[in-house]
Amino acid sequence: MSRRNKITLLAMVIIGALILAYSMKDIKLSVLIHDFFTLDPWWLLVAFGCICAYLLIEGIITKVLVSNRVKKFTFKDALRVPLVEQLFNGITPFSSGGQPGQLIVMLQTGIDGGRASSVLLMKFVVYQAMIVINFFISLVIGFHFVASKMHFLALFVLFGFLIHFFVIVGLLMIMYWPRFTKRVTKILFYPVKWFVKDKKFYAMQVTLYEKIDNLYEESIRIGRQPKLLLKVVVLTFFQLLFYYLIPYFIMLSLGYDSVNVFMVTSLHIMIVMIISLFPIPGGSGGAEFSFESLFHSFISSNSKLVLAMILWRLLTYYFGMAAGAFALLIKPDKVDDSDKPA
């Protein structure tokens, strides 16, 4: 990890501590500690198991996609990919560092850059598609609740949905209509020329077209393997399901046994969508505020609400970054990318 990334990681930890301190300004520390020691440890362990399952399943997805074309790609190296992704997602605005971080990890194993990029692009397409589908379902279940309780958050929810919807539409256009996509891209990309030199502009344009071609070629390859695609889709569905269920199990650990699992899960899906709109790494500030705003109707105790928010952030944000930092220290196994699948 570079010195700049280490500084950013430290800054995010400090920001998180400051947000935590602000959230606790009206709550006695003794009350929070008492609530913590009255938690049901088994439900909390289930919540921890969910985030572990989320990361493990993404490792399995990576292994499935890479091993389809490269032999001897170990699960250890496949698991390093989502862990490092969590770290760089957490320290970069709009989670923009996740994809490059994954690419670096795969290159370290000896996988060809073009092949690694194709795998990551396809994984990203399926992931985005499942997010949009899950989010649409959550809108049907829980949007009326958000609109009635927090009108301004409802606008963020709709805006987040539109952004992710257009992302998946753009990706599908690349996969099935690449020539038209290039024409549209050329028009939309042209204003960049006003701010950079011609040489750099055309180099960026060539790179963009190459990525479009890579995704198109990968989509054709995967399209010829429907069983593989279906396997990735099913795995991604369960990966996201485990992640979205985390707040529900945290609430059970706090003693709120009568909460509606569908409503709580739907609200968490919306929170994740809202977080993606905040430019601060990890959506810090916006994540905590959204969680408290949406879940205060379910958790009547202010101290338990803050405790639930702290546990949620520890599991869904800080745990992933810590695991990613550790994964960077693990030496990768080398593979021969000239190998063909058996």
Describe the model:
It is a single chain. By secondary structure, this protein is an all-alpha fold. The chain has one domain. The protein has 14 helices and no strands. α3 (41-67) runs antiparallel to α6, α3 runs antiparallel to α11 (246-253) and α4 (75-90) crosses α14 (302-328). The mean pLDDT is 85.
Helical residues, percent: over 70%
Identify low-pLDDT runs: none
How many H/I helical runs?
Answer: 14
Number of strands: 0
Separation of the first and last Cα atoms: 36 Å
- For this structure, the quaternary state is single chain
| Mean residue pLDDT | 85
Taken from the alpha-carbon principal axes, the silhouette is: globular
Q: What is the domain total for the residues? A: 1
Radius of gyration: 21 Å
Subcellular location: Cell membrane
Enzyme class: transferase
Membrane topology: Multi-pass membrane protein
InterPro entries: L-PG_synthase/AglD (IPR022791)
Draw up the topology in text.
Blueprint: H1 3-23, H2 29-37, H3 41-67, H4 75-90, H5 98-108, H6 113-149, H7 151-176, H8 178-189, H9 198-223, H10 226-244, H11 246-253, H12 261-275, H13 286-295, H14 302-328
Question: Outline of this structure?
Answer:
The chain has helices at about 5-25, 30-35, 40-65, 75-90, 100-110, 115-150, 150-175, 180-190, 200-225, 225-245, 245-255, 260-275, 285-295, 300-330. The chain is an all-alpha fold and about 350 residues long.
Features:
342 residues, mainly alpha, 0% strand, globular
